[in-house]
Amino acid sequence: MLRSTLKLVLAGTIALFSTTAIAGPTIKLGHVDPANWQSSKKGAAGIIFKNIVEGESDIKVELFPAGALGNENDLVQQVQEGTTQVAIISGAMGKICKTADILNIPYIFSSAPIAWDVLDGPFGDELAKHCEEKSGLKTLAYGETGFRNFTNNVREIKSPADMKGLKIRVQPITLYLELVKSLGGEPTPIAWSEVPNAMSTGVIDGQENPVGVIYNNNFHKLQKYLILDGHVYGTDFIVVNNEFFDMLSPKDQAVIKKAARTAGLMGRAIQQFNTAEGVTKVAAEGMAVYSPTAEELNQFKALAQPAVRKWLAEQLGDDAVWIKKLDDAVTKATK
Fold this sequence. Notes:
- Keywords: Receptor, Signal, Transport.
- Belongs to the bacterial solute-binding protein 7 family.
- By secondary structure, the protein is of the alpha/beta class.
- The protein has one domain (21-334): D-Maltodextrin-Binding Protein, domain 2 (3-Layer(aba) Sandwich).
- 52% of the residues lie in helices and 19% in strands.
- The chain contains 13 helices and nine strands.
- Strands 1, 2, 3, 4, 5, 6, 7, 8 and 9 form a nine-stranded mixed beta sheet that branches.
- Strand 1, helix 2 and strand 2 form a beta-alpha-beta unit.
- Helix 2 (41-56) packs antiparallel against helix 11 (250-284).
- The longest helix is centred in the last third of the chain and has 35 residues, at 250-284.
- The chain starts with a helix and ends with a helix.
């Protein structure tokens, strides 16, 4: 009887040990977008990342969308500390790797496919390594937040002359202040939560955002005019804690890379769909949408790029060589 009991205890202990031994680590993945994959590029990216990783490894992925773990700056700090393993971020990347801000040079990308070719090629690989050295975070893949466009409630914009005197809400980021000033507008930094009220009361005349954001936040009901100038292409960075990634087996690392790459592509697809659908919807609901000609876009580019390039060069110092690297990559992709 005693021997039978010992066998049962031993069998249970071995089973428990085996289960513990094969259990993989857990990844906490955070982002600030909604969870709905049909309307949220980061939401879609997070879900497909989870499905691939859990389907092809013993690693568990817990998703924390909609700022559940804090804002992007909070997420960056958490991933650096290792309390969160993976994050999908956009604007916050420039705060831990200033060089990443060169991707925000206005009118640098003439189309999304050009941006994809640049980011998914040698330039993107080199930038990822550079930012890893600066921040300690490994960029696994690039996603997309979309091209930003101007809206306003005063007049149709077809040239920089039409921007003169317009009070445009911008993020409290110097690059955007320089951009709007160079075009003759009056940049007005306002907290995101205050934008609708600022539009309604006339504190601002307009704002700038991707079309999906404009539609989903009902800005088209508060603004009459939209110009699809695509002045800045927003990039998502899917980043992972270095120490966590390095402790994984080569097989699991390959799965993580594959999942991140696919997640970035999914995010781009959702963003492209939302943009196309958003343009149709805002127009159908009464917003005047203008698509500038190449000649008109060149007028905007001729004013905005020198101002922002000068500011960036001053900020980057020796790393200003990256501006030339980006120019070369864009030229190659365009050809």
